């Protein structure tokens, strides 16, 4: 868990935050803090309560219990909205006007002087690779272009805290890489980033802290490397052969805890991946097989995530 820190250092402070929908609990009294300047990942399976949490933090909905502060200001207040930007899960720019026009409307909403609005809109459209298409109607934009525009709109007021609810979901490699690079450089300039994602690789690459939420409750808040370390029994070796083999014969190798077939590969879980890699090379040779690939893998954030969310499942019966 995050160590308690002086409140002045916290960009986000959540205490016992709770939300019910029609009597069903969606977010179950969660508490955590995000230090200013952090890149914070909020992870969890579908329906875990991520979007509900983001919506409470950005003032779209009211919690039933508990409170959230952004730099000490009550979430949802005008002051809190002025220091935060949001890329929601379902965001809708106006599609019958141009990207440029959308940005100018956004600037007006924030009471931004015209020159500043134009300068910032131009800057972010360039950064997002949209400038040449700025005068196109948004309905002519692809999904990836729309998402980049939404990010431009969120960044226009130069927020200190940026909330993003699965910003790269469904985007191609180039678009999502561009967005990730921009988020990294914003964070390097001191912005606090709160990112929900399903993509464990993304969280691993970007976040210095992650919280894992499952069925409305937090199951872990820690640095990704520390979470991985808690699942040290999940060391594994991934192997593929050029010939068909029996899965049982892999299960019988010394030190193997479990074998899973994954596409054209096998993943063998063990406590000693180095030793197992040697056994697999010998196994391949003595059975006259062609070894196509052999990789030792340390536990991934995904492994930690599955272990933590499965554990919850078992604990709850
Ligand atoms: N407007 C709503 N009315 C009723 N129930 C809702 C509403 N929004 C969310 N819920 C319920 O609250 C729970 C949490 O949903 P939420 O959208 O926060 O999950 P999520 O973690 O964002 O999931 P996903 O990964 O699918 O986006 C779910 O059980 C969902 O059905
Ligand atoms: Mg969601």
Characterize the structure shown.
With 317 residues, the protein is of the alpha/beta class. It has two domains: 7-224, Rossmann fold (3-Layer(aba) Sandwich), CATH 3.40.50; 232-298, Alpha-Beta Plaits (2-Layer Sandwich), CATH 3.30.70.980. It has eleven helices and 14 strands. The protein has helices at residues 50-57, 78-82, 99-109, 114-127, 143-155, 173-188, 200-206, 224-229, 247-251, 273-286, 301-315; strands at 10-21, 24-35, 39-43, 65-70, 73-74, 84-87, 161-165, 192-197, 209-214, 217-222, 236-241, 256-262, 265-270, 291-297. It has a six-stranded mixed β-sheet with strand order 6-7-8-3-9-10, with helices on both faces. Strand 4 (65-70) and strand 5 form a beta hairpin. Helix 3 packs across helix 4. The longest helix has 16 residues, at 173-188. It is globular. The chain binds adenosine-5'-triphosphate and magnesium ion. The site of magnesium ion has 4 residues, from helix 1.
Strand content: 25-35%
User: Separation of termini?
Assistant: 24 Å
Assigned CATH class of the largest domain:
Alpha Beta
Q: How would you name the CATH homologous superfamily of the largest domain?
A: P-loop containing nucleotide triphosphate hydrolases
The CATH topology of the largest domain comes to Rossmann fold
Looking at the overall shape, the CATH architecture of the largest domain is 3-Layer(aba) Sandwich
Radius of gyration: 23 Å
Total count of helical runs of at least 4 residues: 11
| Helical content (DSSP H or I, runs of 4+) | 25-40%
What does the average pLDDT come to? 91
Strands, total number: 14
Order of helices and strands: EEEHEEHEHHHEHEHEEHEHEEHEH
Q: Are any ligands bound, and if so which? A: adenosine-5'-triphosphate, magnesium ion
> How many independent structural domains?
2
Structural class assignment: alpha/beta
Query: Poorly predicted ranges (pLDDT <50, ≥5 residues)?
Result: 1-6
């Amino acid at each position: 868990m995050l160590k308690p820190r002086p409140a002045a250092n916290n960009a986000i402070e959540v205490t016992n935050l709770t939300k019910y929908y029609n009597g069903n609990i969606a977010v179950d009294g969660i508490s955590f803090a995000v230090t200013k300047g952090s890149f914070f990942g909020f992870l969890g399976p579908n329906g875990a309560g991520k979007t509900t949490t983001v919506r409470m933090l950005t003032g779209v909905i009211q919690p039933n219990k508990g409170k959230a502060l952004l730099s000490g200001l009550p979430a949802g207040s005008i002051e809190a909205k002025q220091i935060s930007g949001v890329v929601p899960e379902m965001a809708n720019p106006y599609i019958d006007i141009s990207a440029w026009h959308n940005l100018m409307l956004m600037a007006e909403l924030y009471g931004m002087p015209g020159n500043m609005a134009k300068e910032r809109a131009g800057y972010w459209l360039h950064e997002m690779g949209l400038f040449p298409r700025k005068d196109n109607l948004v309905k002519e934009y692809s999904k990836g272009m729309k998402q980049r525009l939404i990010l431009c709109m969120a960044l226009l007021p130069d927020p200190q805290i940026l909330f993003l609810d699965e910003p790269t979901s469904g985007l191609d490699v180039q678009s999502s890489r561009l967005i990730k690079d921009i988020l990294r450089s914003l964070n390097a300039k001191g912005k606090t980033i709160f990112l929900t994602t399903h993509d464990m690789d993304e969280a691993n690459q970007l976040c210095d802290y992650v919280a894992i939420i499952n069925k409305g409750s937090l199951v872990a808040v820690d640095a990704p490397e520390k979470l991985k370390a808690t699942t040290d029994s999940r060391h594994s070796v991934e192997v593929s052969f050029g010939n068909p083999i029996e899965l049982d014969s892999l299960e019988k190798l010394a030190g193997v805890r479990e074998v899973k077939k994954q596409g054209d590969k096998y993943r063998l879980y063990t406590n000693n991946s180095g030793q197992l890699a040697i056994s697999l090379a010998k196994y391949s040779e003595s059975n006259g097989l062609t070894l196509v690939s052999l990789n030792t893998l340390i536990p991934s954030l995904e492994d930690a995530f599955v272990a933590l969310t499965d554990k919850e499942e078992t604990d709850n019966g």
